[in-house]
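Exam revision sheet. Question 4 asks you to relate a sequence to its structure. Input first:
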Amino acid sequence: MHWPAVEQCPRSKKMILESDSPIDSGELNSEPIWLPEPAQNDNSYAHRGEHTLDWLARSSTPLARESRRFLNDNLSRFPVETQQYFRHRLRSRWYDTLFELVVARFLQEIGAEVSFEVKNRQGKCPDFIARFPDAPIIVEAVSPVYNPEVESKSTGRVSLLNFIESKIPNGWQCTVWELPHIGPSDSKREFKKAIERMLELPVQASASRDVKLVHSLSTGLIRLQLSPSITDGAKIIVEPPLTAWGDSEKRIKSAIHRKRKQVRNSDLPVLLAVQNSSIVASFEDYDIALFGRTFERQDGLGRVVETGFRPTGTLNQKRDRAPTYAGVLAFLEMSFPGGGPTPVFYHHSRFSGMLPKAVLELEVRRYDEQSARVRVKESERADLMRGLGFVRL
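Answer key, structure tokens:
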């Protein structure tokens, strides 16, 4: 089925995602395979800080082979112009673009013909218009950054670990227990001098037992442990852990607020597709962020005297006007590889318009004000993510 021509946004002109039709048409087949198999064997996994696409271009591991298959197969569902867009964006914004790709393919899998970044009457360019046989909708996709402090710390320590690795003596491997707090733009001069001194092992150091090394800097502590190497693999065998706190509720609410201006006053119902990728992600995070949370009150003897539900979620805010969103398509981590469960649709209780049957056949959660509880309708379709062919190794 083909729809009338629509006005595309300048940066994505002519990038139309067709419905999930056979892939043997010339338009879809004219682009060569994006990620071919490497010419040489390379059984290594991604290096520290290496871009996923660089690893996929060189690695011959089963994981890399299956990952290339996943990307090539899913991109081949789109016209050439859209494939090129995704390729470019995966290089510059890997995480966000991978989620957009998953959302677009999921919409195709449940029966939509999807147009990409069509300009609306406000001049805004939401991500997708998904035209189902019974109703069209707008879908805007967003991947909030969970625990940004942890992500920043992880990025900042890449150069520190690389420097340590370059100084580890032959015949040894290293466990890094602790690193100082040094940001990407901070001076590393003190750190490098300390590492060079620490890893200049004395001649009498035995290669048959561990050596523990500790040094205090103005920016924190360095704690290393050298062990005799038994393989020719990576010289750093353990990196220091990163501590994260659950901030899913805050990030989901922020994403919903931030995207409103992109789709406000749209002519079609709007769904916001959100990815929860926090370390301990669950759909309960969405329950709290979108609807609210249960509570109980105890008396002085610890006896429960009251229970209830506080409707403090974003979709339960009282407004005189119609809601911006008809609801939220809630995804858990769409890891690469691995995939994730079928998304859950959180239905805005104040939205009264028409939605596609395919969306309402998902698991649907909706807040019932009369009973002050979240009601759950089980999914009517099984394993809707199978068609995306996620890597399962």
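Marking note for examiners. Residues 10-20+93-146+247-388 form one domain.
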